[in-house]
C-alpha cells in the first residue's frame, strides 16, 4: 500500500515536472512536444515541438490529427544551402501531397539546423489549438498525431511549398500531453541541449512546479520503436548496400557462368562452394536489411518483401543442386532436379538484381547511384545471358553436327556436370561441352 502510494505520488510529480513527450518511430527520427505550463493551464497559447532525424532523409513531418485529411502538418526538409531546415506548415487534404498553409503561426527557433548528419527543427506554434480541419486539446492524455518521413534525395529548397514525393514510412500515434506540460521556456529544446554548459541562460524561468524542472521529463510515453542512432543506421545501410549488390550482381552470375564456361573435373564443387558462400553473404545482407527495415519501419516496402522472398526461394538451390548432382552421378543425365535448379536459380538471381534497384530507390540520395547500379547490373546480367545463349548455341551445333539423339549414357570422361545433348556413343567423343538445353 505504502509503495503504491509512493509510486502514485512519484507519477504525479513526474507529470507535473515533465517537459516533453518524445516519440521515436525509428530510423533515427524523433518527435518531441512541450506544452508550456501557461498554455496547459488556459488551454491555448504557444506550444513547442522538435522534429529531428538523419539528414539523409528527404523530409520529415509531424501532424496534428489522426489521418492526413484535415490534419495540421509540419514538414521539414533541407534548405537550398543545406545548412538549415525549411519549416513548411501544410494542411492535409487527403492522401496526396498537402499544400502549404499560410495561416500557420510557426517559428523556427534557435538550435535548428543541419549538423553531424542530423537535421533538427525546434518549432514554436502559436495557433495550434485549432486549425482549418480540426483542433487539439492541449491537456488531452491521448492526443492524436501523425508522422511520416521520406528517404531519398534532399529536398534542398527554401520554399515552404516545395514539391515533395510520398513518404516511405508513416503512421499515427497518440501522445499524452499531460506528460508534456511544464516549463515556460521560449525555446525548451535548446534549454535542454545547452543546459549542461549554460544552465543560466533560460532554465531560470519559473514555473509553479519546481526549479529543477529543467531535467525532468517523461520518458514513459516515448516509444521504444527504434534502436540505433542515425549513424549506426547509415553505416548498416551502407554495408547492406554494398554486400547485397556484390552478391547478386557480381558473385551469383559469376558462379553461374563458372559452370557454363569452365571445364574441369570438380567444377561442380567450385560452383557449389562459390554459390553457397555467396548465399552466406546474402544472409548477412538480409540480416542487416531486416534490422534496417524494422528500425526505419520499412518492412512493408516492395524491396523488403521481395528481399525476404528471394532469400527463402534461394534455399531451394543447394537442395536442387545437390539432388541434381547425386542423381546425375547415378544416371549421368538430366533429372528432375536439373531444370528446376537451373531455371529457378536464374529467375531468383535476376529478381534479386532487380530488387537492388528497388532498394536504391528507397534510400539513394542521388539518382546517380541508381543509374550507376542500373548500368552495372544490366551489363553483368546481359553478359550472363550471352554466356548462356552462346553455350546453348554451341552445344546445339555440336549436337547437330553429330546429328544423333541417342539416349544419354553416363560418360566417365565428362569433366563437368553440365547437361548435354545426347551424343553419339559410337563417336566416342567426350561430350563435356554439350549442354542439354
Ligand atoms: C545458393 C546456391 C546455388 C545457386 C544460387 C545456384 C545457381 C545456379 C544457376 C543459376 C545455374 C545455371 C547456370 C546458368 O546460368 O547457366 C546453376 C547450375 C548448376 N548448379 Fe547450381 N546453384 C547453387 C548451388 C549448387 C549446388 C550446391 C550444387 C551441387 C552440389 C549445384 C550444382 C549445379 C550444377 C551441376 C549446375 C549445372 C546444371 C546443368 O547445366 O546441367 N549448384 N546453379
Ligand atoms: C494564459 O495564462 C497566462 C498565465 O497563466 C496569462 O498570462 C495569459 O494571458 C493567458 N492567455 C490567454 C490567451 O488566456
Ligand atoms: C536556422 O534557422 C533558425 C531560424 O532562422 C535560426 O535560429 C538557427 O540559428 C539557424 N541554424 C543554423 C545552423 O544556421
Ligand atoms: C525530453 O526530455 C528528456 C528527459 O529529460 C531529455 O533527455 C530529452 O533530451 C528531451 N527532449 C528534447 C527534444 O529536448
Ligand atoms: C537533475 O540533474 C542532476 C544532474 O544530472 C541530478 O543530480 C538531479 O537529481 C536532477 N534533478 C531531478 C529533479 O531529477
TrEMBL record:
Annotated stretches, region: Disordered: 181-227
Biased composition (Polar residues): 181-193
Biased composition, class Low complexity, residue ranges: 194-222
Cellular compartments per GO CC: membrane
Domain Cytochrome b561, residue spans: 203-399
Family annotation (SMART domains): B561, DoH
UniProt-listed PROSITE patterns: CYTOCHROME_B561
UniProt entry tagged with the keyword Transmembrane: yes
Compartment list: Membrane
Transmembrane segments: 237-262, 274-295, 301-322, 343-360, 372-393
Pfam families: CDH-cyt
Protein name per UniProt: Iron reductase domain protein
